[in-house]
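Morning. Coffee machine broken again, so started the prediction first thing and wrote up yesterday's gels while waiting. Chain of 153 residues, entered below exactly as on the submission form.
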Amino acid sequence: MYGLRDRFYRFMEGRYGMRGLQDGLQVLLYAVYFVLVVINFFARSRIVNGLELLLIAYMLFRILSKNIPARENEGRVITAFFYKTRDAFRFRQANAQEKSRQKAIQKERKKDKEHIYRECPQCGATLRLPRKKGNHGVLCPRCGNKFTVKCGR
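Came back before lunch.
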């Protein structure tokens, strides 16, 4: 028994082998294969069956390959693609949350009848000022810029 295992270990020396979850492309190939198996379970298609066999052949090629740097580079490319896709979805989600937060702020400001909100022309800080008729001099607390604000009631 040990002889067969030792022969297998010697055969696999210097080959890419199974990298598990570290190899993004291998994970993607397993996921696609699983989806194809589920589809073929219901569809019973020769085309899907052929795709499954091609996928298995490519996975075996990657496992038995001795060109380790090329296989690692393939895995890195797919992993980078996964991260870019994930970050794009996170960016969209963060943008949506920011937009809803801004809408809530605008709604609160519209309810406030005693104050007006203006931005400092120099630093962009939003200032809450009392609502009084006429022109008023304002000093920005953030940057110290002096400017005038016109307010009509």
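The beta strands are 115-119, 126-130, 134-139, 146-151. Going to sketch it on the whiteboard this afternoon.
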